[in-house]
Amino acid sequence: MALNVMTAKDVTKKVFDKQPLFILDVRNESDFQDWKIEGENFSYLNIPYFDLLDGVEEILDQIPSDRDVLVVCAKEGSSIMVGEMLAEEGLSVSYLKGGMKAWSEHLEPVKVGDLKNGGEVYQFVRIGKGCLSYMVISDGEAAIIDSTRMTDLYLEFAKEKGAAIKHVFDTHLHADHISGGRIIAEKTGAAYWLPPKDAGEVTFDYNALESGTDVTIGSTTINIHALYSPGHTIGSTSFVVDEKFLLSGDILFIDSIGRPDLAGMAEDWVGDLRESLYKRYKELSEDLLVLPAHFMIIDELNDDGSVSEKLGILFEKNHGLNIEDENEFRKLVTENLPPQPNAYQEIRETNMGKITPDEEQQREMEIGPNRCAVR
């Protein structure tokens, strides 16, 4: 049989639709254990490529015939070779085009709501990395929040929507992924905004995003209010958009809260994190729809693939928002933390403008799961 191909977009649809998929991952076991394609109804077999060089006969009885089968590797080459061997044995299988590198870079836009005066808010789900970015569109103008380095997709999406990008925001200086904010601003002439407390070492000009800042998008006057919410970084800033949406950056997630250690300041910033979550956010309307900059587990996805929840629900159900004892809270966010993101120091320096890695280096720096949260 002929070997078929699946794109990252095809696999994302299966994740969103909760469809079954059997994945034969031919990367090394350590790479598979560290980071894999996740779906609610996905099942897995991890056999390193080198163990299959002499043939696939020994694994044929482990490959199901009642669901789609996808062979996955880092860049696609090994998965094509293994997939062809399975196809020669009469199995119907596909390989992942571009491998895990393509999976890491795929962005899926999802509409998350309407604005009061006719605009829309879109969430860009980076399904393989757990990153979430946003575009607010109103009356032919757009603002982008926490963009990834895959800038062309935002530019093309805005063009399709007939919107001119006027403002680009980063809620904080990112440590897990490279921001595309400055590049988008340069290409479009948009204003680039960054919290000044996170910008002490940056090498470029920016607009200071400070508490009380209002930015109008479109002639319908949609205000993006900057809400200073330190903790993940000292400058972390949230946005309340149209009095309806809370873009929480990396402070608050659906199933977890932000970690304060990525600049080596966990002990110093834990108090800021608690005050942001337990005081500043408590003053906000519980009806605000929380739109975070990341998700940690696939269970956080809604039925349409978006990631969001009402603030009031999170105050009821998110463990990180319900720790009365301050010492217990401090212990949660400073001890037993997950591994830090790959190359996070180099990513921070890239986002400061201190180093300029090429595209392949940027890919390698970002490979791996999202690790911005504590649970």
Main attributes?
375 residues, single chain, alpha/beta
Structure report:
The protein is α/β, with parallel strands linked by helices and 375 residues long. The chain has eleven helices and 20 strands. The strands form four sheets. The protein has a seven-stranded mixed β-sheet with strand order 6-7-8-9-10-11-12. Strands 13-14-15-16-18-19 form a six-stranded mixed β-sheet. α6 links the parallel β10 (164-169) and β11. The protein is globular. The termini are far apart. The mean pLDDT is 91.
Residue share in helix: 25-40%
How many E strands?
A: 20
Distance between the termini: 46 Å
Largest sheet: 7 strands, mixed
Number of helices: 11
Regions with little confidence, pLDDT below 50 for 5+ residues? none
Shape: globular
Mean pLDDT: 91
Write a compact overview of the structure shown.
The protein is α/β, with parallel strands linked by helices and 375 residues long. It contains eleven helices and 20 strands. 27% of the residues lie in helices and 24% in strands.
SSE topology:
Elements lengths: L3 E3 L1 H9 L4 E5 L3 H6 L7 E5 L22 E4 L4 H12 L5 E3 L2 H7 L2 E7 L5 E7 L4 E8 L2 E5 L5 H10 L3 E6 L11 H8 L2 E4 L12 E2 L5 E4 L4 E7 L8 E5 L3 E5 L7 E2 L7 H15 L8 E4 L16 E2 H7 L8 H9 L9 H9 L6 H8 L6 E2 L1
Parallel strand pairs: 1-5, 2-3, 2-4, 4-5, 9-10, 10-11, 11-12, 16-18
Antiparallel strand pairs: 6-7, 7-8, 8-9, 13-14, 14-15, 15-16, 17-20, 18-19
